[in-house]
Amino acid sequence: MYTELAGKTAVVTGGSKGIGTAIAKRFGAEKMNVVVNYFSDSKGAEAAVKIIEEAGGKGLAVQANVGEEAGAQKLLDAAINTFGSVDIWVNNAGVENRSATHELSLEDWNRVITTNLTGVFLGSKVALKYFVDNGKKGNIINMSSVHEQIPWPGFAHYAASKGGVKLFTETTAMEYAKQNIRVNNIGPGAINTPINAKKFADPVQYEETAGMVPMHRIGDPEEVAAAAAWLASDESSYVTGVTLFVDGGMTLYPAFQDGKG
Ligand code: NAI
Predict the structure, then answer these.
(1) What mean pLDDT do residues 150-171 have?
(2) Which of 33, 90, 185, 260 is 20 to 30 A off residue 118, Cα-Cα?
(3) Which residues contact 72 (CB under 8 A, 6 or more apart)?
(4) SUPFAM superfamilies, alphabetically (predicted)?
(5) Ligand 1 pocket member 117 (CB < 6 A)
(6) Whose CA is nearest to atom 9 of ligand 1?
(7) Helix/strand/coil for 259
(8) Residue 159 — very low, low, confident or very high, per pLDDT cuts 50/70/90?
(9) Of 224, 197, 251, whose CA–CA distance to 143 is shortest?
(10) What pLDDT digit, counting tens, does each position of 93-103 carry?
(11) Do 37 and 64 touch, CB atoms closer than 8 A?
């Protein structure tokens, strides 16, 4: 636990399920105020708020589309109106779908890029403006992926969005470092969330993915949330512009494990 986080306010996008919910719960356990953004799953967001409040934090569910400028502004306004400020902004919302690139529709390309990359830009823009205008020490955490580094056939739009997030994070980290604003990425590997629950429920597919992970297991959303809490805390006060991979070693060229190669 990080005692300095108590009473701080965070916005977590895509907080109604998966990694976003785990981060919202962890922030609740840190006794923080959390704006839990959801797109359509109000029940999931309300359930997260309940858990945050049971843990001693305060929560507020807010519907918004992260791919729209008005959506990001709505989240900022909700945080300020309800909790008086924003200290930490987590751009977590993301979508994916499989398609061979030569069959990928422009509609799917736009949906993935708009949510995963433009959404990070729009959330960062309102948060940065608020931090700069108020001379506030700010903290932005973007949810990238191992696929900011590892190519992923069938998911070119997803990999392009996460590769974009990597350089967007590094650039904004550099641009705002002098203003005491830190910007970091988390790069999850294979994590058991609704985005891939069906896949990991099948023992054959679970084993196929676990075989690509040196630690030989799929990760839990709480393990990603622990990284978010650390990046939000002062324990990481000299860390900016990095991607913290939470991937059981997936980015370490697992094919070389056991001295092969
Ligand atoms: P999920 O599907 O469980 O949750 C995604 C959340 O984003 C949902 O709450 C959804 O409603 C929300 N969302 C989607 N479009 C939105 C929009 N336009 N506006 C607001 N919210 C929107 O997925 P998961 O696994 O929790 O993923 C969270 C993040 O972690 C994503 O950015 C994903 O790319 C990333 N990630 C996940 C990995 C995994 O193995 N689960 C691995 C690497 C990265």
Answers:
(1) 98
(2) 33
(3) 64, 66, 119, 122, 123, 125, 126
(4) NAD(P)-binding Rossmann-fold domains (SSF51735)
(5) no
(6) 14
(7) helix
(8) very high
(9) 224
(10) 999 999 999 99
(11) yes
Q: Which of 16, 124, 22, 21 is nearest to 73 (CA)?
A: 124
The residue count for the chain? 261
Q: Whose CA is nearest to atom 12 of ligand 1?
A: 14
- The pTM for the full model equals 0.98
The pLDDT score that the predictor gives to residue 195 is 87
Is pLDDT of 260 > 90? Answer: no
Please tell me the CATH superfamily of domain 3-248, with its number.
Answer: NAD(P)-binding Rossmann-like Domain (3.40.50.720)
Q: What is the pLDDT of residues 194-204, one digit of tens each?
A: 988 999 999 99
The residue whose CA is least distant from atom 19 of ligand 1 is 65
Judged by DSSP in three states, 70 sits in: helix
- 12: confidence class by pLDDT, cuts 50, 70, 90: very high
Active site residues: 158
- Contact yes or no for 6/212 (Cβ under 8 A): no
Where in the chain are the domains? 3-248
